[in-house]
Design brief:
Strand content of chain B: 15-25%
Radius of gyration of chain A: 23 Å
Mean pLDDT of chain A: 88
Distance between the termini of chain B: 23 Å
Oligomer: heterodimer
Largest sheet of chain B: 3 strands, parallel
Low-confidence stretches of chain A: none
Order of helices and strands of chain A: HHHHHHHHHH
CATH class of chain A: Mainly Alpha
Mean pLDDT of chain B: 87
Distance between the termini of chain A: 20 Å
Structural class of chain B: alpha/beta
Shape of chain B: globular
Number of strands of chain B: 7
CATH superfamily of chain A: MetI-like
Chain lengths: 248, 198
């Protein structure tokens, strides 16, 4: 976006918030459903003084991510490189990819109980399919003619992996890691909302049930900002590493 | 597939990858899209673990030879098709091989670029004196560039003629309208006019 476009967007958002504030103060909005932005801001301030509310979500999501990424990519690479195995298992992966993972949450609670391992396991389960698909797509994106060129110039198998496969796959790998993180955060939040005694998801559910709207909206803003920040950070790395993909 | 026996400068061996003896240039430039021009040219040296400063120096020399001085840090997508093919030629030359294999290297370029690169190849040849094995379907290109044209039949590919091109060097564009040029072209054409490309 150009500078004046950003200015217009910012002005629009501020204008809407101002209108909301004015309507709420004039009593034109139901304060129990739509409290004034200033009230939400105060609640957000109180929430930010206790950053540990996000800790549970952050730690769980990170743990699930660290397990799911290497596992998913390894499965993806194997399915892409071993023809027989890929033909056998890829339809299954495709099928499971399309199934909403949330329906399995009760099963995970039955197996693991409401616990941190349950949340991590469910996070891994939700995330891993994106990474398997990403791993397959990444391998398939490697141009075979570049492998031929390196062979002609005497590259060893290891050199072909390091010099051709890795750089060619990097943008797609990062892209699937980013998508995986989005799925992952959603999964852990769902666990916290559905059956947990702690964490921001649990609080969102509780505040919603108790009609504590300022707190609820403050939590929504907080989670949204945190998720967008993670997403944008990964996208920045991705565009750095993938600059060569631009076509002139 | 069995590896055929080839002899290069009198030394015969089974043909496999011979990166230090043979530079290969393909129909497409096939550059690594994430590497700059100079890193692409230095790539064969990197595979051989030549120290960085040494290989970049050699690559810069080759880029200068192929007329790309000043474009060292450009990525392939920032260069034209003809320039990318020049980078590929520089990459083929960087290990100072005895032989340059060129498989229809200018086939995917427009006519103008093709002519210019043909002259460039002659200039590079006159400076380096490499043996160049050049595959082409263009009669003009064959007669204009070569000392010797080996005519192959289509399916099975047998040698049907071996034409010595006795045009003087350096070649010039004016020669392509000379009588001798026409006679040579005609001789080759008689062999291949019935063999439709399939």
């Amino acid at each position: 976006m150009r500078r004046h476009e950003r200015f217009i967007v910012a002005a629009g958002v501020l204008g809407l918030l101002g209108l909301w504030e004015a309507l709420a103060r004039l009593g034109r909005l139901d304060a129990s459903l739509a409290p004034a932005p200033s009230t939400i801001l105060q609640a957000l301030g109180r929430l930010l003084r206790r950053p540990e509310v996000l800790q549970s979500l952050g730690v769980t999501a990170l743990a699930a991510f660290v397990i799911a990424v290497p596992m998913g990519l390894l499965i993806g690479f194997t399915l892409a490189e071993v023809p027989g195995l890929g033909g056998l298992l890829r339809p299954l992966v495709n099928f499971l990819f399309g199934v909403p993972k949330s329906i399995f949450l009760p099963v995970f609670i039955l197996v693991f109980g409401v616990s941190i391992p349950q949340k991590i396991a469910f996070g891994v389960f939700t995330t891993i399919f994106v990474l398997i698909m990403g791993g397959i797509a990444a391998v398939q994106s490697v141009p075979p003619e570049l492998v031929t060129v390196s062979r002609v110039y005497g590259a060893s198998r290891l050199q072909i992996i390091r010099e051709i496969y890795l750089p060619a796959m990097a943008p797609i790998l990062l892209e699937s890691a980013r998508l995986g993180m989005v799925f992952n955060i959603t999964a852990v939040l769902l666990c916290e909302i559905y059956g947990a005694r702690d964490g921001i998801g649990y609080r969102i559910a509780a505040w919603g049930e108790n009609l504590q709207m300022p707190q609820l909206y403050a939590a929504l803003v907080l989670v949204a900002v945190a998720a967008v920040a993670v997403n944008e950070a990964l996208r920045l790395v991705e565009s750095r590493l993938g600059a060569w993909r631009q076509r002139s | 597939m069995t590896r055929p026996l080839v002899a290069i400068r009198g030394v015969s061996q089974r043909f496999g990858a011979m990166p230090r003896k043979v530079g290969v240039i393909f129909q497409e430039a096939n550059l690594l899209p994430w590497l700059s021009a100079i890193d692409n040219v230095a790539f064969p040296l990197k595979l051989r673990r030549v120290p960085k400063s040494e290989r970049l120096e050699a690559a810069a020399r080759m880029l200068a030879l192929t007329g790309l001085a000043g474009f060292e840090s450009r990525l392939p997508h920032q260069l034209s098709g003809g320039m990318n093919q020049r980078v590929a030629i520089a990459r083929g030359l960087v290990q100072n091989p005895a032989v340059l294999l060129m498989d229809e290297p200018f086939a995917s370029l427009d006519e103008q670029t093709r002519m210019v690169l043909g002259d460039e190849l002659l200039r590079i040849w006159s400076e380096t004196r490499k043996t160049v094995l050049f595959v082409t379907h263009s009669l003009n290109e064959a007669v204009y560039l070569a000392d010797r044209v080996v005519v192959l039949s289509a399916r099975p590919g047998r040698v049907v003629d071996d034409v010595a091109v006795d045009l003087p060097r350096p070649r010039s564009f004016a020669m392509s309208s000379s009588e001798r040029f026409g006679i040579l072209k005609d001789r080759i054409w008689q062999h291949i006019k019935h063999a439709e490309r399939r």
